[in-house]
Amino acid sequence: MGHREDLLEGAKRCLLAKGFVRTTARDIVKESGTNLASIGYHYGSKDALLAQAYVSLVEGMGDAFDGDGTVDAAAPGSLERFERVWANIISTMKDPGSVWRLSMEVLALGDRLPEVRAHLAVAQREAGRGLVPLLMGGREEDVSDATADTLGSFYVTLMTGLIAQWTFDPASAPDAERLTAGLRQVLEAATGSADGALSAGASAEGASSAGAATDGAP
Questions:
Q1: Of 165, 138, 136, 176, nearest to 152 (Cα)?
Q2: Is the Cα torsion angle 91, 94, 100, 104 positive or negative in sign?
Q3: Could you give the percent of the chain with pLDDT greater than 70?
Q4: Global pTM value
């Protein structure tokens, strides 16, 4: 690996060991076997490197989100698929040393980490874009910006809430079954039936199909 890759891997290890605030540039240099000048040359700043390291750690959770391959057996947009995907995601939050605790650090200390927060705010849209096909099927590259900003944002908001609950009160944090039961109640109240409602809302931009599902409800 070159210095850029070495820095990224070193920063990831430092984040997991120390978090954002306690990690220094010298920590990263020592862990990666590089030098201070390399941080500025390849990433611009320590905080930009830490933000990229965090994004890389989250991206590495993708296989865990897919689980054992049973997600694709459930129909795209179905409540069954919703429950399976969120069961996989929640399983990554149960470890006290989970990468998600870093999200809480950013939320709690955002004013002290303005550059990290700015980088991660940009990354949120892409995180939502990646969640859409996981739950709705299709390919990430086909998810439009409008869908990423609506449906994707919905999923990111749901994930952020789950991370907070599993971090602060894991004993009462909802599992995927409870989460799905809650969503079913919302859908039944809104449409009269939960069956197929998620799929209906997953049309090109969601609006026309969601309207059709409502019109056809009893």
A1: 136
A2: positive
A3: 88
A4: 0.79
